[in-house]
Design goal:
Helix content: 25-40%
Order of helices and strands: HHEHEHEHEHEEEEEHHHEEHHEH
Structural class: alpha/beta
Radius of gyration: 21 Å
CATH class of the largest domain: Alpha Beta
Number of helices: 12
Low-confidence stretches: none
């Protein structure tokens, strides 16, 4: 195949998305600017109610980022020094970094090699008398097996938090991601399926008491203003971000369906090749926050794609148990073989809703040429 020097396929094209909803977004921003109500207020409460309704859970608390959502969820549960929190070894850093930020010790468990989510069969062996919680990540847009994980947590009287940063709208047997644990946490980082124009996050729970405590911790522990029952922090979502997210939420299911259609086309185009396609558990609704394939010579493929104007990303090149900052925990190469293999072999291809069929075919052809023909 001759190199196409004119066609460019970015990993993500936020401009293309904005162009489809420009009038709605601009009206929402103008509404906030004219109100001059930038912190709290109707945009925040409106978004919280709409996210709770969308995720089919009673309570949603807006905060400053997906990282803060995890941090405050753990803080609310009283996780701290002397506690252990189990998480998958293959995830974004915040999954484990927030454990350390709360003064607790991360304990890593290997992932299922097909879904890259925490393997329930490996969880129980990692539980000790110091274990207080489990953080399960619904990675790349596919909900993890939360019923199986919750059964184990209930047996051992542990809290279960779902890091749903990449999986808003995903489902497990009809139940929405973020709604099945003590806490679910979302990120609204711009690259997410539901992305803000900056950072933002949301904490979800079915427990009214936990919701009230999390809300207080996000706002310096104050209710009413200047009366502090807890020592909290400042983790507030801006009204401008909330207004933009409320616009985008109306389009989210349509965008997720288009991502799934794009994934189906990729899957068909990779049929019969050596490209390892994403596994889709039939019990889930997969929203494809990322479309992640497994290939030999992954780093060489990344270079080849760049030469052909195809955007891609490696999620994640170093598993958590091998990160330098966690060296004191004593993990070594070989301890988490499935996480380590994923870190060496996976690469994410463009999957955003506005992709054209021509772009998808070009990406697939470029990948197949490299992988199958060398």
């Amino acid at each position: 195949m001759a190199t196409n020097t004119t066609l460019k396929v970015p990993l993500l094209d936020l401009r293309a998305q904005y162009d489809t909803i420009r009038a709605e977004v601009d009206d929402a921003v103008r509404r906030v600017m004219e109100s001059c109500h930038f912190i709290g207020g109707p945009e925040i409460t409106g978004l919280e109610e709409e996210i709770a309704r969308y995720s089919r859970t009673p309570h949603a608390i807006a905060c400053a980022s997906g990282t803060d959502a995890l941090l405050i969820a753990m803080w609310t549960l009283g996780i701290g020094p002397g506690d252990e929190v189990i998480s998958p070894a293959y995830s974004f850093f915040a999954t484990a970094g927030t454990v350390s930020n709360n003064g607790a010790t991360p304990v890593f468990v290997d992932v299922d090699p097909r879904t890259y989510n925490l393997d329930p069969h490996r969880l129980e062996a990692a539980i000790t008398p110091r274990t207080k919680a489990v953080v399960a990540v619904s990675l790349f847009g596919q909900c993890c097996d939360l019923p199986a994980l919750k059964a184990i947590c209930d047996k051992h009287q542990l809290y279960l938090i779902e890091d749903a940063a990449q999986s808003i709208g995903s489902e497990w047997e009809g139940r929405r991601s973020g709604s099945m644990c003590d806490f679910g946490t979302f990120s609204f980082f711009p690259s997410k399926n539901l992305g803000a124009a900056g950072d933002g996050g949301m904490i979800l729970t079915g427990n009214a008491e936990l919701a009230e405590r999390a809300r207080l911790l996000c706002n310096h522990g104050a209710k009413p203003k200047y009366y502090h029952s807890l020592v909290g922090t400042n983790s507030r979502l801006d009204a401008l971000q909330a207004a933009i997210l409320r616009v985008k939420l109306k389009h989210l299911d349509r965008w997720s369906e288009k991502r799934a259609k794009n994934a189906a086309l990729y899957n068909a185009l990779f049929e019969g090749s050596r490209v390892g396609r994403p596994y889709h558990d039939a019990r889930t609704r997969h929203i494809y926050n990322q479309y992640v394939v497994r290939v030999p010579k992954r780093d060489e493929l990344k270079k080849s794609l760049a030469e052909r104007n195809v955007g891609c990303e490696i999620y994640y090149p170093v598993p958590l148990h091998l990160q330098k900052c966690f060296a004191n925990l004593g993990y070594k190469v070989g301890d988490m073989p499935h996480s380590e293999a994923a870190a060496l072999e996976t690469i994410a291809l463009p999957i955003y809703p506005e992709l054209t069929e021509e772009q998808i075919r070009y990406v697939a052809q470029t990948v197949r040429e490299f992988v199958d023909q060398g």
